[in-house]
């Protein structure tokens, strides 16, 4: 339950950002079928128990992947900074749960075929029932 609700809340939060909405062709929960780059999607998530004595909780690890075109290694730098800032500002109070911590874990960037780039951003969210 928590993982699904967090994914939905995060996608909505990212879509509501005017900078990201203007810069990206899609912000989706999965890889879009027919959208040209640049786009952002959740590529993976997993959860584990993070309950306390009196409240149910989950630790959710989530990976976002940005797909874009460009020759320069720093082509995605501004956009990645905007995505990171928006993820970190996700309001803690959500319907049914509270985000206790949001932590950046790691990033990976790679050049792919046909002048495309991908940047993977991984986060850990710790949630407790509201």
How would you characterize this protein structure?
This protein has 130 residues and is an alpha+beta fold. The chain has one domain: STM4215-like (2-Layer Sandwich), CATH 3.30.2000. The protein contains 3 helices and 6 strands, in the order ααβββαβββ. The protein has helices spanning 2-15, 18-23, 77-88, and strands at residues 26-28, 39-49, 57-69, 93-94, 97-112, 116-129. A 6-stranded mixed sheet has the order 1-2-3-6-5-4. Strand 5 (97-112) and strand 6 (116-129) form a beta hairpin. The chain is elongated, with a radius of gyration of 15 Å. The two termini are 13 Å apart.
Structure, briefly:
The protein is α+β, with helices and mostly antiparallel strands.
CATH topology tier name:
STM4215-like
Largest sheet: 6 strands, mixed
Per CATH, which architecture?
2-Layer Sandwich
C-alpha termini separation: 13 Å
Number of strands: 6
Tell me the domain tally: 1
Q: What would the average pLDDT be, to the nearest integer?
A: 93
Helical proportion? 10-25%
| Radius of gyration based on Cα positions | 15 Å
CATH top level is: Alpha Beta
What structural class do the secondary elements suggest? Answer: alpha+beta
User: How much strand content do the residues show?
Assistant: over 45%
Described by the principal axes of the CA atoms, the overall outline is: elongated
């Amino acid at each position: 339950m928590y993982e699904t609700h967090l994914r939905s809340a995060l996608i909505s939060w990212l879509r509501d950002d005017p900078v990201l909405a203007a810069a990206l062709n899609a912000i989706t929960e999965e890889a879009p079928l027919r959208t040209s780059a640049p786009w952002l999607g959740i590529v993976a998530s997993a959860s584990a128990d993070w309950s306390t004595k009196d409240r149910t909780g989950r630790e959710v690890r989530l990976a976002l992947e940005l797909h874009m075109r460009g020759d320069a290694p720093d082509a995605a730098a501004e956009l990645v900074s905007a995505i990171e800032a928006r993820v970190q500002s996700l309001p803690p109070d959500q319907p049914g749960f509270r985000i206790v911590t949001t932590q950046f874990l790691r990033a990976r960037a790679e050049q792919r075929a046909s002048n495309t780039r991908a940047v993977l951003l991984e986060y850990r969210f710790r949630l407790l029932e509201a």
